Amino acid sequence: MQQHQQQQTENPSRGSSRLPVNPRRHKVAPEQRKRVATACNSCNVRRIKCSGERPCRQCRGSSRDCVYPAPIEKITVSRNELDDLRRKCDALERALQTKVPDDAERQHLIAQEGGDPTGSRAGSSSSFTPPQSHTMQQQPAQLYRDEAAANDAEAETAGRMLSDPDGRSRFLGETSGATFLDYLKEFMSTVFPLAFNKPWLSPSANNGSTFLASLGRYQTYDSRPIYEMSNVDPLVLPPRSDMTVMLEDLRYFIQDGNGTFPCGGIYWWGDLGSVPVDPNPASFPTGTSRQEMLDKYRHLAFYHTAFAVACQANTMPDRMPKPEDLSQILFSRARGLLGNPLDITSWTISDVAVLALMGFYLIEMNRRDAAYMYVSNAMHISMMHGAHRGWVDERGKRVFWTLYILDRWLSCLMGRPPTIMDDAVRVPLPNDAPSLPPAAGLRAHVQLARISGHIVCNTYKVAPYDHQPGGAARHVERALQMLETWLSQLPPTLQMPADYRSPDPACCLLHMGYNQHLILLLRPIFFVAVKKAFAERYVTTGGRWNIEHHAARIRQCSDAAHRNLHLARWLLDLTKRTRKLLQAGLHYVFNAAIILMLEELLPPPQQEPPPSPSAESDDVNFAIDIFDEETKTGSNYARDCATVLKDLRSLIQRLRLAPQ
């Protein structure tokens, strides 16, 4: 409660929300009042005295918007009449929910009759947090509201402190895949003793024991440091022919496909078409210090980072770099040129693209905590130079929006607040410009990143700014509507064919991001359905949670997972498997495989043919094969993901065969 009030106090201009009346105050006669009857919203949330003027003295002195609540007409009814109306309302809403179980259809029906679907308890008895049993619906409305409020408060502080293999603890919020896997470990650890007599784990490889034993930990290398090599020379560049090839590869992987992507790509980092000139330290006057030389060639940090990303992106089992730590050598050269990241006097707006690209490299190296810091630093430098308010040219705008996309992606990945809120960003979206790739792909990616921020901040309550009533269900429906609108308004170059085989890899990756956001939104409903299915098998309950009421959302989540694995196959086929999936693609594949394995634990939906077990198995095997192949490059991330998928597959196969 204190946290909620503090958030309102710090954000008085958001909406018209007000604090409740202070319960410690006693009734004061009108002639004895020392303050106005109704304070403005800003004074109300700050608990300060309001003068009652428009604007009041406090708001006028602080240059705040002075907004008063709309007057509410009050009437007097007897207690008996009020109780009768409440009972009738509760009975009617329960009857409506029984007759029209689909939440969206119910809200549409209420809206047609001139009602407020968000204000209806039948409309907001959320599919996001379904009722535990039919008996809950028969409880008094006030108890239901209190319980919903308690659930909201609990969700607001959700997330976990998880330890990596070295014992370092990091906070990972509700949207993090590691947090969801920890919930899954808890569930599996509870279900197996009910389903089997001990010992219920066979002593075989990938039997699930490693997965269950890692409760409270995450099995990746997110927080491990990148080893800094102090003996590298930042003024050394690769051979010119190698630089040309690496920049062409990089443009294909993370920019515009060397001009072949119709959408223009979904990132823009800068000029990747020109090869840098070799520095010539001998041309400096005698007595020039080493630091002066490094400052002169500071721009090479961008190219060193670009070469590091290209080297990492091209690393495959049959195409290993020599030496194997070549990308880290290149990255160390870039860090040597940039110097102290906390020395603000040395940073310019040109360094924002370098830091953003460094963040991308660290994501590829699975150093997400380090990437989180680099991207945050880049965002603060861009704000320091006014990029968020539009004090940049078209190239600067594109770099800023690419940084914004990375910031939102890491925020969602880690379940942490974004660095900058949307209200603070005034820079226009990218536009088409001469000598630059088309802006359609980057614009669509920015708009999807905005929806991602809404999901993280409001749906999962990581940093909520939408305090309108309606509960979790309203936030889910709102986000689903935003995603549907985004998809329907894509320009022709970004529309996906019916067979989901676009020739533009950037377009495919963008649609995989869309599907991942659907999975993220609907995963809680999906997981609740799995838990309820097992609760009904092994625990006697007073009622049954009807999965058919949520079948449409469950199917939507499953379909998104299938589409992502289909798109991953297509992306590999598109390049004849000469190019691999980068971290974003691997992340989408992993999450899709988890959903498809959990789907095997659900009862088949009524009036629909059950999914083909062979098709489900093929998709999961495909995902495991991708990570097994990536493991051959020495990637700890791929090895850990493959282990988790194999362990989970083993556990789920045993649960499917468990006695009823």
TrEMBL record:
<feature type="compositionally biased region" description="Polar residues">
    <location>
        <begin position="121"/>
        <end position="141"/>
    </location>
</feature>
<feature type="region of interest" description="Disordered">
    <location>
        <begin position="1"/>
        <end position="33"/>
    </location>
</feature>
<dbReference type="GO" id="GO:0003677">
    <property type="term" value="F:DNA binding"/>
</dbReference>
<keyword id="KW-0539">Nucleus</keyword>
<feature type="compositionally biased region" description="Polar residues">
    <location>
        <begin position="1"/>
        <end position="16"/>
    </location>
</feature>
<feature type="region of interest" description="Disordered">
    <location>
        <begin position="113"/>
        <end position="169"/>
    </location>
</feature>
<dbReference type="GO" id="GO:0006351">
    <property type="term" value="P:DNA-templated transcription"/>
</dbReference>
<dbReference type="InterPro" id="IPR007219">
    <property type="entry name" value="XnlR_reg_dom"/>
</dbReference>
<keyword id="KW-0479">Metal-binding</keyword>
<protein>
    <recommendedName>
        <fullName>Zn(2)-C6 fungal-type domain-containing protein</fullName>
    </recommendedName>
</protein>
<dbReference type="InterPro" id="IPR001138">
    <property type="entry name" value="Zn2Cys6_DnaBD"/>
</dbReference>
<dbReference type="InterPro" id="IPR036864">
    <property type="entry name" value="Zn2-C6_fun-type_DNA-bd_sf"/>
</dbReference>
<dbReference type="GO" id="GO:0000981">
    <property type="term" value="F:DNA-binding transcription factor activity, RNA polymerase II-specific"/>
</dbReference>
<dbReference type="InterPro" id="IPR050987">
    <property type="entry name" value="AtrR-like"/>
</dbReference>
<dbReference type="GO" id="GO:0008270">
    <property type="term" value="F:zinc ion binding"/>
</dbReference>
<dbReference type="Pfam" id="PF00172">
    <property type="entry name" value="Zn_clus"/>
</dbReference>
<feature type="domain" description="Zn(2)-C6 fungal-type">
    <location>
        <begin position="39"/>
        <end position="68"/>
    </location>
</feature>
<dbReference type="Pfam" id="PF04082">
    <property type="entry name" value="Fungal_trans"/>
</dbReference>
